[in-house]
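TASK: fixed-backbone design
INPUT:
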């Protein structure tokens, strides 16, 4: 089933690339992704800014009454981290440990500056998760080999490689905060670098997302792979609809 789903993704992606995209439309699409990705990724972590409010913060630079400063900073930081991820995605080559650290550094800048781009120094526990995260003393070693593990899967389909990287980073939980946002940005870095569009994990599917991660904690990544494959397919179909190529999808 996975092989069939991956072949379908390849078909849609090849089809998408047959359509020329004017610079004006490309910039508009990228701006929309920047806002929607920021809203959903932060909302998954509990940020209460709405999509419209996130757009106002990012595009108009306004402060929304009733929301704490941290939520505004989370929006601005994610936008900057998204742009950094985009820049990193234009450079071919293997994933570097510093790529992950650089993204995380932006995520927590000005919020938890002492933890930004720094591996956690304490034990952590995620409410509702069965996973026992590694001792903080082991995190530097685990992250030292993390990029090697991701790069060793280069022969896998790019979508599976990106999904596995996402899960492995969350499983190590290397940071005091910002692990989920960093993992989603990392996943999209690998997808874009491989020629696929970024995948949106919407807050409306948070329960399914967490459930798939929990199953993966038990050693079966199948449900999580299926979830990510579905989100990449949704991204492809949405882009095909925009550029006018959805007639036979």
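OUTPUT:
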């Amino acid at each position: 089933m996975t092989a069939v789903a991956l072949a379908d993704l390849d078909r849609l992606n090849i089809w998408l690339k047959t359509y020329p995209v004017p610079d004006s439309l490309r910039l508009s699409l990228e701006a929309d992704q920047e806002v929607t990705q920021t809203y959903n990724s932060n909302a998954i972590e509990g940020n209460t800014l709405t999509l419209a409010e996130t757009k106002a913060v990012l595009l108009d630079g306004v402060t929304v009454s009733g929301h704490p400063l941290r939520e505004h900073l989370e929006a601005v930081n994610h936008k900057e981290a998204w742009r950094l991820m985009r820049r990193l995605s234009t450079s071919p080559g293997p994933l570097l440990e510093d790529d992950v650290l650089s993204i995380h550094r932006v995520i927590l800048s000005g919020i938890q500056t002492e933890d930004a781009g720094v591996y956690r120094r304490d034990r952590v526990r995620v409410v509702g998760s069965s996973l026992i995260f590694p001792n903080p003393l082991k995190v530097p070693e685990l992250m030292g080999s993390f990029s090697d593990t991701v790069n060793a899967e280069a022969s896998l389909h790019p979508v599976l490689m990106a999904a596995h990287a996402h899960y492995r980073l969350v499983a190590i939980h290397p940071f005091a905060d910002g692990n989920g946002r960093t993992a989603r940005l990392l996943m999209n870095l690998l997808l874009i670098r491989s020629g696929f569009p970024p995948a949106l994990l919407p807050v409306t599917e948070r329960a399914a997302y967490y459930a798939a991660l929990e199953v993966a904690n038990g050693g079966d990544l199948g449900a999580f792979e299926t979830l990510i494959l579905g989100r990449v397919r949704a991204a492809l179909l949405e882009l095909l609809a925009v550029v006018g190529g959805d007639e036979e999808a």
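COMMENT: The chain has one domain: 2-243.
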